[in-house]
Amino acid sequence: MSRFALVILAAVCVATPVLAAAPGSFAIQHVRVFDGVRTIPEANVLVRGGRIFSVGSGSIPQGVPTVDGAGKTLIPGLIDSHVHVFPGAQEDALRFGVTTELDMFDLARDFAKWRPQRESFAKTDAADTWGAGLGVTVKGGAPLEMLPPTDAAKIPVLANAVGAKSFVDARVKEGSDYIKLFIEDLSEYGGKKRMPTLSRDEVCATIAAAHADKRLAIVHVQTESGAREATECGADALAHTFPDRIATRDFLALAKSHRIFLETTLDVWAAASGLDIARKLAADPRVAPYLSPFQKQTLTAKEDKPHPQFFPTALANVRAMHKAGIPIVAGTDAPNSGTAHGVSPHEELQLLVRAGFTPEDALNAATALPTKIFELGDRGHIAPGYRADLVLVKGDPTRRIGDTLSIVRIWKNGYAIGRSPPKKH
Ligand SMILES: [Zn+2]
Predict the structure, then answer these.
(1) Where in the chain are all domains bearing CATH 2.30.40.10?
(2) Cis peptide upstream of residue 17 (ω within 30 degrees of 0)
(3) How far does the centroid of ligand 1 lie from the alpha carbon of residue 311, in Å?
(4) 17: which DSSP letter?
(5) pLDDT of 330 higher than 70
């Protein structure tokens, strides 16, 4: 049993309603709770020392400050399973109740800061971060074409499958929590290969090296053929839903039998299709006052050459994969065009419901499920012993998913956080 499990058990055993008020304690009373998996119609949630102490019908000790939860719902802080961070990104995330972010490629890869922060219970204005660090690609391959040449030049590339092990070992040495690979030839934009990409041997060798170093291998794909190759090579996750074609039964069976999981990024496909979902979100009075200038800029960015078929295809594929029982976590790919840290996970939850998820399943995909898959420890649940990363919202997002935007209060490590946006970044 892990040390973490022992902490939880200890908290369960000592949780009693006669607990005296302790410093840093507070309680949310008479609140509906979505605990990461299921809904508790009404409970009192007691927090002490940055952790959840008890969840139930027990009375609140005298002297403990309380928050009235009537007519409201308490959900775990949200987890965005696909982002790219930059200075200020984690603060943007937390202002919208996203308390944990999983970076999927990053030049800065600030593990020396991220690792202690996610263990700490100190007051913070920023979401916690896990990261892939640099991804594995080839000369002239994705995502180098999106980077300024000076940055692209800093990224090591694979010349052959033999180089995979040393590449992965170097990432692990830097602190990468998982390994990111890119299969991308841009064929989703018209059937022809337009860019060099990893060979099948290189993909398989990199995934094997990641597993040898006990890391998950997460593969960027945007086509079914790329997804098939990643799956056959033993990848743990697809970093995107593919929008190039409706998933075949064959692929769904393969994905299921390999137990691969999916990060959705439906919001990116909505933006790439020219839909104005994100721009409407930016104008929502529950969103607009809290946006930084950069969040507003990326969220409202327009696609120059929209591909209208991408979104309906990707949505159908998420629906089919969910129906097939393939595990799906909510990821946004913020801050790509039409997305923003913190805000876009709320949109992604709504899109998951459009893809046939129940609101509870959608919330699970942004809380307890990524915690389990990525082994994120004491988060993603509202239960004794877990970190008090909490979001209180008006209404009932377990029935109307859009209510996640009606944020009343956010706590990180048991501290209520402010929501004033920076004037610039
Ligand atoms: Zn990405």
Answers:
(1) 1-75+380-419
(2) no
(3) 17
(4) T
(5) yes
Q: Ligand 1 mean position to 220 CA, how many Å? A: 8
Residues of the chain with CATH 3.20.20.140: 78-378
158 CA to centre of ligand 1 in angstroms? 19
Q: How far is the CA of 102 from the centre of ligand 1 (A)?
A: 10
pLDDT at 344: 98
* Separation CA 186–CA 4 (nearest Å): 43
Give strand pairing partners of 262. Answer: 238, 328
Q: How far is the CA of 258 from the centre of ligand 1 (A)?
A: 23
> Does pTM surpass 0.85?
yes
Q: Which CATH superfamily is domain 78-378 in?
A: Metal-dependent hydrolases (3.20.20.140)
Please give the distance, rounded to the nearest whole angstrom, from the Cα atom of residue 337 to the centre of ligand 1: 11
Ligand 1 centroid–CA 104 distance in Å is 6
The pLDDT score that the predictor gives to residue 145 is 85
The secondary element (H helix, E strand) that includes residue 207 is helix 200-212
- Any idea which fold 1-75+380-419 has? Urease, subunit C; domain 1 (2.30.40)
Residue 219 half-sphere exposure, CB side, CA atoms within 13 Å?
34
Å from CA of 239 to ligand 1 middle = 7
Lowest-confidence region among 56-65, 245-254, 308-317, 400-409: 56-65
- Is the model's pLDDT at 366 over the cut of 50? yes
Report whether pLDDT(362) > 90: yes
- CA 403 – ligand 1 centroid, Å: 27
8 A C-beta contact, residue 413 and residue 365: no
